[in-house]
From TrEMBL:
Gene Ontology molecular functions: peroxiredoxin activity
Domain Carboxymuconolactone decarboxylase-like intervals: 34-116
Taxonomic lineage from the root: Bacteria, Pseudomonadati, Pseudomonadota, Alphaproteobacteria, Rhodobacterales
Domain of life of the organism encoding this protein: Bacteria
Listed name of the protein: 4-carboxymuconolactone decarboxylase
Length: 124
């Protein structure tokens, strides 16, 4: 494993949790291994690992983008990750208010429903 893979894996585990990363790795096949390598290096090792903004802000940006694009499964994953990134429920709402203005009320409304469910499950 090269340095970019190590750094990407470390930040991915910090944000998503070691359990999630272990489950993702366990499911890797020869077919999707190149994709997993790409996201570990590019998304996690190059972008998320940068020290220009903290994880909290990266988390909020990611949530806003995923909500705007309607990527529900990834949105849910990153909403769960806020417990580790430091983004609060109030931070998430601020991000989703921006989604409403810049990407549309229906996208934000749908994402708010997902966030309410995720945060309620976390509170149980």
């Amino acid at each position: 494993m090269d340095d970019l893979q190590r750094r990407g894996t470390a930040i991915r585990e910090e944000v998503l949790g070691t359990g999630h990363v272990a489950r993702a790795r366990a499911g890797v096949t020869a077919f999707d291994a190149p994709f997993q390598e790409l996201i570990t290096e590019a998304a996690w090792g190059r972008v998320w690992a940068r020290d220009t903004i903290p994880l909290r802000e990266r988390s909020m940006l990611t949530i806003a983008l995923l909500a705007a694009l309607g990527q529900d499964a990834e949105l849910e994953l990153h909403l769960r990750a806020t417990a580790r990134t430091g983004a609060s429920e109030a931070d998430v709402m601020e991000a989703l208010l921006h989604v409403a203005i810049y990407a549309g009320v229906p996208r934000a409304n749908h994402a708010i429903g997902i966030a309410k469910r995720v945060f309620a499950e976390r509170a149980d």
